[in-house]
Amino acid sequence: MTETIALLPHALPTCANARLALFAMRRMGAHGLADARASHAMFTAFGQGFRRPLVLMRTLMAELAATAAGTIAIAPCCCARMTPAESVLLAVLTRIETAPDVVQLLMADLLGVRRVESTLMAAAALSAAFADEGRPFG
Prior knowledge:
Pfam families: DUF6628
Distance between the termini: 29 Å
Number of helices: 7
Mean pLDDT: 94
InterPro entries: DUF6628
């Protein structure tokens, strides 16, 4: 049990919208950007307005993969806890509008690079898409 808590130290978010984003990140991270279950979850949550959040989630995941200097640890979808990297990603999505300086440092630490502007733009667009569809993070 203590090994699990050491590897997955963070509890799942209480926000249903953050849990949806986490699910989509986990599925796309493990099974590719075109994962059908991630697409179905976004369609179920957003209805006809699913395309923008889905495309922006794919964009964020592609930016993370292209920019990261190392690997980003993600847990399987069935895990009831989060990795530190997943926690940082959700913190970035939640705080991108209110604390841009903080999220820039968080993202730079996560990715191991200094230039994270393109990744932050993708995160900001995704956060805005969720909010515009009535599913803000937080």
